[in-house]
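Researcher: Let's try something more involved. This one mixes different molecule types, so please make sure each is placed in the same coordinate frame as the others.
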Amino acid sequence: MMRSRGSVGWYALMLRLLPADFRARHGDEMVRLFEDMWRARRGLWDGAHLWVLAVGDVARSAWREWTARWSARGRVVPRRCAAADGDGRRGGVMDDTIQDVGYAVRQIAHRPGFAAVHVATLALGIAATTVMFSVVDAVLLRPLPYRAPEQLTMVWTGVPGEDARDRPDYLTFEEWRRRGNGFADMAAFDPTRVTLTDTEGAERISVTRITPNLLPLLGVQPLHGRGFSAEEAEQRQRLAVISHAFWQSRFGGFPDAIGASIELDGRPSRIIGILPADFRFSDAGVFEPHTMFPEWEATGNEGSWFVVGRLRPSITLGQVQEEMTAIARALDEERPAADRNRGVSVVPLSRHVVGPGSRLALWMLIGAVFCVLLIAAANVVGLSLARSVGRAREFAVRATLGASAPRIVRQLLAESLTLAAIAGLLGTLLAVGGIRLIRAFGPGDLPRLNEANLDLRVFGWVLAVSLVAGVVVGLAPALTTLRRNQALSGAEGGRGMSAGVATRRIRRGLVVAEFALAIMLLAGAGLLVRSWSALTSVDPGFAPERLLSMNVSTTAFESDGERVTFYADVLEQVESIPGVESAGTIGDLFTDGDVDLVVTTEGTAESTSTRVRLRIDEVSDHLFTTLRTPLHQGRFFSVEDRPGSPPVAIINEAMSRRLWSGRDPVGTRFRFGAPTSEAPWITIVGVVGDMRRQGLETDPVPQVFVPFAQRVSGNEILLVRTSTDDPMEMVERVQAAVHRVDRQVPLSFATVEDQLGADLTQRRFQTSLVIGFSIVALVMAAIGIYGLIHYSVATRTREIGLRIAVGARAGHIFRVTVWEGLRLSVAGLLIGLLGALWVGRAGSSLLFGVTATDPLTLAAVSLLLTAVAATACYFPARRAMRVDPLTALRHD
Amino acid sequence: MKPFRYHVLLALARRALHGAEIRRRVEGDSGGTVTIYPATLYGTLDELAAEGWIQEVEPDEAEKEQVRWRFYALTPAGRSALEAETRRLEGVVARARAALGAARGV
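Model: All components are placed in one shared frame. Result:
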């Protein structure tokens, strides 16, 4: 089992904490022993319990073994007393350790304020990174739940070099499958929607139609029952394999679902298999043989099949791409000239599941959260450094009493590790809440986000981050202490001037780094906010307010004639409802699908053929009026455009620009296919404005609209322009109107505004996270610089007092102090801006309507940061200005 | 003597065992109340070997197929340490019984 292997693997990794000789002697057996125990666990809780105890066990033993080795080499001060008992062989070091930890705890208790700030800062940083890591782990890092997922690829067609991801027709898929030797196998699938009818009524559900070899190709075994055989698919038997979720919701998880019958599009299908719960290949509830499409074998350039392939074990992606390119070229030769130039591109399945946009955004978010963690750590290091200077006298005393330098360093490390451990614990608790929040409010269209949880990998992450933070934070003061230790004398270490010079230099560097990181985050946030405002002010080409959208499916109808009558009747009924201004239908309003078609336009001299990526939709007469999409030329459809009358079309501006640049397209004719094709000529009767139907961020593609009477489909979107501000209020009346025409038709409702908003959820998620991170970064950087200047003023009280005593003006003192801070922030700013430019360039595809070098944004965030830095320096500077020379000089 | 050490010695009292068997035997001998985790187990084995109370032995012929594991057996010194500790514990138990009985009797 995957999980077990993973767990044991982690255990084996953890054993690296133990000394090498111990591992060499016992490592193998320990892993086997753990494997035994892991296998014998009962349930999740038992597993977690086992892990917690095993971690403690290894940690304790690691400590014991290592200290035994160190003491054997006599590196540590001789132990003070031997334990009386025979077991006290290693007592000396154990004693030291207990002493260290005890001392650390006393120190923490002694300065609770310091400890609280320290822990809170680190915990925030750890929690934020943990949450982001769990998301990235679930979405990007964890392998897909299939056998050898790295061998799985998607195979697309499209113009070579254009990165087009088009779907091939079935014949092309068959040819690929037959000729492609680099693939162990290839399968095809196509998601669609059908009407499920049961005793409670009719409902639209997602169905994926698959070739019978898809499940074996993925390496997925049905939980119960079986998949389809090739013969059954060939015979077009109505069989269904259902998803685990569908099984649970429809059959309550009872095994008698196997053999049961469900009614899809008015005809019964027999359930023969149930898929396991972790099968998330598509969100479909039902899987059917691919032959369920009436026109499944249809050829031509409008392919609809998604193709997934499994590479042979020793074959690389590059090799198979090369082979497929050659096959595509050979297939091209067999095609009509106008239809050639169809390449193949092979893409890893994981890249298909999470697209490049989301991928980049997530890596950027991880980068952002790391910046926050670094700033947090820098702050804590600064804090500890300041504190270690204050404690110089204490260390001097301890050294005089016989503590060796390593012993003092160890003690400092013990302190910071103890604090880091507390912070890690707190951070984990915060992260649990954070992950819940993200899963609840994160973008629903981010694949696999719902798999994010606090599992062992994430725990390992917390452990690693806390450990590194603890060591780094402890190391800086420890090392400076060590260096100082050489020249340590009891006389120094009060409020002396020289004690903190080295540490102050480090702290200045830290503050510069904090500001550099903060400005990078702020610049990113600023650019995303600008993108957001640019995006929300984009004109979609139609008016989405007060517009109700619903899916009206007629897949269960017998003929196209019935459908046309049905939709016409529905429109009439709906438009007669009081409160409805107008209504129209369209094949699909929002879509990510366009097709690569050959279009032949009739010219005065001769016809020309062009390949165009476009979108064809059937629409009703009042659609454009309902959408408020302007007519630029010609006319809308009318009752004259019926089946049998000459085929007509309305095109959008993008189409007009693409094929009739500069000429008036109205009245001219075009046909789909090559000049020789038999397809009917279509007359253009109108040109409408462009609509952004593939999301606000995507430029409109050429679009062709035909009257639904001349080309109807089983799925239409009914759009209703209402006169109420909340169109959902009209749902009941519209539903009643549709059901007056046909009771059985399934409906689903949404407002167009919500649909447009859903398109923005990922961006909203990214933007709000980055804003949150940059606010935290800004506050932490402000605290950092405040702490530094405050401390610098406090340690130089005597010097400042002296200066004032000899006649320096208060204003001068103020300016010098503020400048001390501002200088650092400006240095950080400049470095950070360079970084921001670089990051901006890498992430420019995430921006919309603004460039990564946008001067306005960069200037604004620079100003903001400088203002914050100035404010943070203001308070300590005011304090410096008001130093009373007498008090200061009396200070020692 | 530390309880873990006692339990490990006790587990080896009858015959030579390997790590996984020792762990199971300890759990069985203690009625499931003592679970010994891998790192502690092997640390304890090292310590006991250093005391000279146990030693590594060649497995029996019957157990040759389990050569992946290393077997440990009590030395005479280990046996007498186990006996001494058992006697001491008996004394402790007797005193505890008496004390509890006396407490109940009041």
